[in-house]
Amino acid sequence: MNEPPAPPTGRRLLVVGDDEDLGLSVAEHAQRWGNAALRLHRPDDEALRDHLREPVDGVAVVSRDDIVALRYTLLVEHLAPGVRLVVTIFDHTVASEITRAVPNCTVLGMTDAIVPTLLGACVAPELASLRRVGDQLVAVRHSPAGPRVDWHHRRPRSWKARAGKALGQLRPVDGSSRAMLIGFAGLLLVAALDTALGVLVLHEHWPDAAWHAARTLTTVGSAPAAEHAPDWYKVLSAVSMLAVLAFAAMFTAGLVDRLTSRRLTALVGSRAVPRRDHVVVVGLGQVGLRLCCELQALGIGVVAVERDHHAPCLPLARALGVPVVVGRGGDRFLLRRLSLPKARALAAVSSDGLENIAVAVSARAIAPHQRIVLRAGGDDVTNESRSLFRIGAVCDVTRITGPFVAARLLDVDLLSVFAIEDRTCALFADGLVHDLAQWAVHDSELEKIGS
């Protein structure tokens, strides 16, 4: 198989944004591949204007804030019209606006770079990357002989996933919904018992017995024949009427809470919380929501956990049929209610690396052998914690996104970037996997380029 074309060298590039780690990674990879890259961290208008007076071959705008990325993109286009622009964006609405306003701009979805690695680790431990390409799936697997690429059609949902979804029907995780179901089931049980006693003891026709049972449930009154019934029947009837009060209170309280609160899970249907062979995703930002959608597209059950009641992605998750539980992902009791020991994997993908580590520690405490996938930023805390214990599959966002953006800035078209042990590799459309370290130029050539 032929080698992919190496990125061009000798270009003068500019990396602009407020994400210091990601901007540094983009600039370092571009320089390592034989280009001159200057990084500007949060430049003002004058500083950016000064650096754009000289011609540049391309500008990368990297930021975790879409509005900041939009501002810098429009400013660069104003100062250097027609310059090649590559900008990182999460939100599709902002991406569409940038594409419309700046035709010479290439918009890179941050989730496109990160999610394939997270998705592969959630599906199977041997997958370094998994991505949908049209109607097919392209998977990169670890193997003793090196990375192996497999192309196959999307598979139907497995029986384990179907069973997990079926077990989740009518099994809510919140207390108010459980109270409503218990109250409703208790009322039905009392109604069935009163109907049966009316037919068997009071010798009523079943329509009359059912009508009198409904009168008892609504506290309108009991059957007239009950006044002449045996004593044991009266005692049982009194107990059932007292039980109706309790069951009716539970049902009413649960129903009112469900109608008045913004519920993000359902009792039945696609937003019911699965109970087996599912993935628990902690952190419902843009990355978490995209990961949930990709897992559902593969037929894998998923439930998301978000601690912020006002998170921007919550309404979108509800519209997409993603069940969401509001709570702290590091809460052991919540993880138990979500059936973590029976899950396929747990993915901690919030933007806070320390919070992801806390979630992993809690998950290890209740499910020691559970597969855990961590989103990390390449900080020292994550690396040190990973060396102390088997924390799980760590997806270093900076390590993956940096070369992805740098390659696209240099007109290199690739599907995804992923890490295998100490190597950072790229997957191309023809199924070729290439070690990005082979693109590095010698120090002597870098000195010539710098001079």
Characterization of this structure:
This protein folds into 3 domains: 12-115 and 402-450, Rossmann fold (3-Layer(aba) Sandwich), CATH 3.40.50.720; 175-260, Helix Hairpins, CATH 1.10.287; 271-376, NAD(P)-binding Rossmann-like Domain (Rossmann fold), CATH 3.40.50.720. Helix content is 45%, strand content 19%. It is built from 16 helices and 17 strands. A hairpin with a 2-residue loop joins strand 15 and strand 16 (423-427). 41% of the residues are buried. The mean pLDDT is 84. This is RCK N-terminal domain-containing protein. Keywords: Membrane, Transmembrane, Transmembrane helix. InterPro entries: NAD(P)-bd_dom_sf, RCK_N, Trk_Ktr_HKT_K-transport. The chain crosses the membrane at residues 179-202, 235-256.
Q: Averaging pLDDT over every residue, what do you get?
A: 84
Q: Give the CATH level 1 class of the largest domain.
A: Alpha Beta
Counting helices, strands and paired strands, the structural category is: alpha/beta
The CATH topology of the largest domain is Rossmann fold
- What is the CATH-assigned architecture of the largest domain? 3-Layer(aba) Sandwich
Rg: 29 Å
How many domains?
3
Total beta strands: 17
